[in-house]
Amino acid sequence: MEASKFNIADYLDSKEMIAAYLNTVLEEGDNADIIHAIGMTKMSEETGLSRPSLYKALSDGAKPQFATIMKVLKAIGGQIRVNPKST
Questions:
Q1: Cα–Cα separations (whole angstroms), residue 36 to 18, 77, 84
Q2: What is the number of H-type helices and E-type strands within the chain?
Q3: Tens digits of per-residue pLDDT, 5-55?
Q4: Which of the four pLDDT bands, split at 50, 70 and 90, describes residue 83?
């Protein structure tokens, strides 16, 4: 018997669930987790940026342009918000 591979995307069926998942990955994950969570093929299609460009921009030590970050956020239905940091 062959086990099927778990895909979290099969369970993220609303914008709220997607946002909660991405926020958790952003808070607890590393760059590889974030890239996997976003889904690079879909991100490439949505942003108009090539997959290699996205991997490079989102890799460890990269310094992506703000425009790239905004394209990625728009593609995943996200937005930037500023909240006071808890102490």
A1: 13, 16, 28
A2: 5, 0
A3: 777 777 777 778 877 887 887 788 776 777 777 778 888 888 898 988 888
A4: confident
**Whole-structure pTM value:** 0.60
Q: Quote the CA–CA distance of 7 and 37 in Å, as a whole number.
A: 10
- Single-letter amino acid, residue 39: G
Tell me how far CA of residue 74 lies from CA of 6, 9, 43, 57, 67, in angstroms: 26, 18, 10, 16, 10
Res. 79: pLDDT tops 80: yes
Distance from C-alpha of 52 to C-alpha of 49, rounded to nearest angstrom: 8
Question: Domains of the chain: which residue ranges?
Answer: 14-75
